[in-house]
Amino acid sequence: MKITFVPCLDLQRAAEFTFNNMRDYYAQFAPDWNTEKVLGVTAELVNYDIQFNSETVGVMRLQFEQGDCILRDLQVIPSAQNKGIGSAAIEEAEKLALKANASALTLRVFKISPAVSLYKKVGFVIRSENDRFYNMAKPVSSL
Predict the structure, then answer these.
(1) How many CB atoms lie under 10 A from the CB of residue 130?
(2) What is the distance, to the nearest Å, from the Cα of residue 86 to the centroid of all Cα atoms in its chain?
């Protein structure tokens, strides 16, 4: 099992990937969202394709801001979930955050997302919440 992270060269494909993976959430919480809106808010981020055995199975997007590394997006196709890819992506995000001298890795996740359990398992804690989201953080330290 080989998991790698490569700079994303096809941002349109990555936006389509995210929209398709998040379709149910958008339908419930943001019905006016489409692939072009996803592309608009993700094009300026640091975008990585997640590859599993040389096949692109996900996307990870980071933003560096005010001493934090924000995990803006972590998507893995359903057929590749529960194989350690999400945990490996978080570990990679931590390495990149450490390299950028960030003090924390932060994220925002839908409360109803099954990813909440993954984030808690790898050490994220809830900083705050609203009716839809948890804002979570994990300190970055030498690995």
Answers:
(1) 9
(2) 9
